[in-house]
Design brief:
globular, 347 residues, plastid, two-stranded antiparallel sheet, fatty acid metabolism, Fatty_acid_desaturase-2, 13 helices, metal ion binding, 2% strand, binds fe (ii) ion
């Protein structure tokens, strides 16, 4: 029996002709996408930011981390941990990239440029969760077992990217997501600095810079898709926006709080790590970057999609104003977070 799909689900929406096109674009990806990757020998590694466990000064350095950690409020830790857990679910994201028709790594060692990108992107991203996990562990402020359980649950649950195995939808999604993480890590960097932990600020800032570089690569791919196939790309952008870009950690659960993602999201919204305004701003940024409003020669379906996405940023902004007014009138509520030993944080 076939597994049941939810209403509106499609998979493998790419035609043979489009598959050919992605094959044809391999040379382009080699010259325009792979160039955004860094050589291993030139790359930072988590150990560059961590105390060396083999050195005599290790215990003193850990004490310094713990001392600095005292100055960071719990609400920041909720966001840092949520971001770290999102990074740690990397196996899910690599699996999804390898679900895209025409660009997946067919063998695990494929030398095709799309496949090489996916493996190297994963390797670069792998440092993010690794570094945040090790550093945050050393602060001594966190219930690591609860955090580890959350990661375990999240990877087991997966995520619904709604990309239908299509690289059009998929690369639009990854463009948004890289920019969202760039914003979010950039904001935790700023907060860490304000609260006196310069090392943590540097860590979050370094990760944010990676996200920016990845955003540039994915954005360039979508720009190319708009050039070679404006109709499908426009319709895919509208489709993705109608479905709304879901966050990778939407299925967050720690074994206690069934609404954990919303509670983490509310804290991120309140302290400005990632807000509904950012979502609208990201859309605006890409509409401008891909010159979506200026694309001509579209089919009626393409034009309808163009009209929809171009009017969407304004609609998001209105919704966001309403949500903001509602949240201003809402009585604040305290929520315990298991990640910080059930200490309570305002949501
Ligand atoms: Fe990342
Ligand atoms: Fe990323």
């Amino acid at each position: 029996m076939k597994p049941k799909m939810s209403k509106g689900d499609k998979s493998h929406s790419l035609t043979q002709e489009k598959l050919e096109m992605f094959r044809f674009l391999e040379g382009w990806a080699e010259e325009n996408m792979l160039t955004f990757l860094k050589r291993v020998e030139d790359s930072w590694q988590p150990q560059d930011f961590l105390p060396d466990a083999s050195s005599k000064s290790f215990t003193d350095e850990v004490q310094d981390i713990k001392a600095r950690a005292e100055g960071i409020p719990d609400e920041c830790y909720v966001c840092l941990v949520g971001n770290m857990i999102t990074e740690e679910a990397l196996p899910t994201y690599q699996s999804l990239l390898n679900s895209f028709d025409g660009t997946r790594d067919e063998t695990g060692v494929s030398m095709k440029s799309w496949a090489r990108w996916t493996r190297s992107w994963t390797a670069e991203e792998n440092r993010h969760g690794d570094l945040l996990n090790k550093y945050l562990y050393l602060t001594g402020r966190l219930n690591m077992k609860q955090i580890e359980k959350t990661i375990h649950y999240l990877i087991s649950s997966g995520m619904d990217m709604k990309a239908e195995s299509s690289p059009y939808l998929g690369f639009i999604y990854t463009s948004f997501q890289e920019r969202a993480t760039f914003i979010s890590h950039g904001n935790t960097a700023r907060l860490a600095k304000v609260h006196g932990d310069v090392t943590l600020a540097k860590i979050c800032g370094t990760i944010a810079a990676d996200e920016k570089r990845h955003e540039m690569a994915y954005t360039k791919v979508v720009e190319k898709l708009f050039n070679v196939d404006p109709n499908t790309t426009m319709v895919s952008l509208a489709d993705m926006m109608r479905k709304r870009i879901t966050m990778p950690a939407a299925l967050l659960y720690d074994g206690q709080d069934h609404n954990l993602f919303n509670h983490y999201g509310a804290v991120a919204q309140r302290i400005g790590v990632y807000t509904t305004k950012d979502y609208g701003d990201i859309l605006d940024f890409f509409l401008e970057r891909w010159r979506v409003g200026e694309i001509t020669g579209l089919s009626p379906e393409g034009r309808e999609a163009q009209e929809y996405v171009c009017g969407l940023a304004e609609r998001i902004r209105k919704l966001e104003e309403r949500a903001h007014t509602r949240s201003m009138n809402k009585r604040s509520q305290m929520m315990p977070f298991s990640w910080i030993f059930n200490r309570e944080v305002e949501v």
